[in-house]
Every structure is written in structure tokens, then in C-alpha cells.
Design brief:
- The chain has about 190 residues and is mainly alpha-helical.
- Helix content is about 55%, strand content about 5%.
- The protein has six helices and three strands.
- Strands 1-2-3 form a three-stranded antiparallel sheet.
- β2 and β3 form a beta hairpin.
- α3 packs antiparallel against α6 and α4 crosses α6.
- The longest helix has 29 residues.
- The chain is globular.
- The relative contact order is 0.18.
């Protein structure tokens, strides 16, 4: 006999019993050469000088964060194929998505700073604003100050990652990764 819906939602994670199938679609087929990006980048720098010495660290930072985001996304996608009523599966998926969001945001922030361009205006509700929100609250919160009934600051549904204030769908996360991956492919 498994754990009851009440127990899942009360003692494990908000709305966990409602999970049926997480829509975290693999990106491996779209970006099969991600593990070659670093070698390609280095060789192109050596033989073609396509990135100046002043911008090399920035390019590496963006490629590294994008590579990490893709790896974490793939790990979340694989973990999401497991038993969603398993506490270990749930927290594995959540961990990989939180790490993915961290890498996405850091990559976006490096790109934003280098271009001196804002990604969003505070409170505009855009995808980037919501990714930033989840990135920040997943890192900076007091577990003892969560509202009654909340076991976690960030939790999952079949289609999205949530906080009480914001939601980012898996499709939106996927689009942000794809955008960064296209930039990284060009850099590499």
C-alpha cells in the first residue's frame, strides 16, 4: 500500500498527489553536440580568434551555464519518468530543475550585463522576471517562515514549477534554455 494523497500533500510537498506526468521534454535531440562546445570554442579561439581575450571569460561563463542548464534539464527529464508518488523521485526532479533555473538565470545575467540590456522590468510578469523570482526565492528564504501548510518554497505540478507568487511553465524554461543554447552554439 502506497502513501495516501493527504500524506503526500501534507507531509511531503504541496499538491504532490496531483502529479500524473511531468511535461519535461528532452532537449538532447536538438543539441546533440553540447559536450563538444568547449573544445570547439577553444580551437576556434586558437585558430580563428573569433572571441577577443577581453570577452573570452564571458563567453566561457555563458557556455558553461548553458551546458549546465542543459545537463540539469536532461537529468530532470529522466528523473520525471520515475514514479511521481516516490518522495525520492519528486525531490530529484525538483533539485535538477532548481539547478537548471540557477544556470539559466546566471547565463542570462552574464549575457544581459555584457549587452547592457535589461531582460525585464520589475513586476512585468514576463518569463524572465518569473525565472528570476524563482531563482532568487529558491536560494534566499527562511524555511521556518513558510506559510502554514507549505513544506517548500518551490514545488512542482505536471506543467510547471511554482512558488506562491510566481509560476514558470516547463515550456517557458525549455524556451529559455533553447535561446541560451543557440547563443552558446554560435560562441562555440
Amino acid at each position: 500500500m502506497g502513501i495516501s494523497n493527504y500524506a503526500l500533500d501534507t507531509f511531503v510537498a504541496q499538491d504532490m498527489s496531483k502529479l500524473t506526468q511531468l511535461s519535461i521534454k528532452s532537449l538532447a535531440g536538438e543539441f546533440p553536440n553540447t559536450d563538444k562546445w568547449f573544445a570547439q570554442f577553444v580551437l576556434r579561439r586558437i585558430f580563428h580568434g573569433h572571441v577577443s581575450d577581453e570577452k573570452a571569460a564571458l563567453a566561457f561563463a555563458i557556455i558553461r551555464r548553458t551546458h549546465s542548464a542543459l545537463q540539469e534539464w536532461e537529468l530532470a527529464s529522466v528523473a520525471a519518468q520515475g514514479n511521481l508518488r516516490s518522495v525520492a523521485t519528486y525531490f530529484s526532479v525538483l533539485h535538477h530543475l532548481e539547478s537548471c533555473i540557477s544556470a539559466i538565470w546566471q547565463g542570462l545575467e552574464f549575457a544581459r550585463k555584457s549587452l547592457s540590456q535589461e531582460l525585464f522590468k520589475k513586476g512585468d510578469g514576463s518569463t524572465y522576471a518569473r525565472i528570476n523570482w524563482i531563482y532568487n526565492v529558491s536560494r534566499h528564504f527562511d524555511p521556518e517562515a513558510l506559510p502554514q501548510g507549505d513544506n517548500h518554497r518551490v514545488w512542482l505540478s505536471d506543467q510547471a514549477i511554482h512558488t506562491r507568487e510566481q509560476t514558470v511553465t516547463f515550456d517557458e524554461l525549455r524556451e529559455a534554455i533553447v535561446m541560451l543554447a543557440r547563443v552558446s552554439e554560435k560562441l562555440a
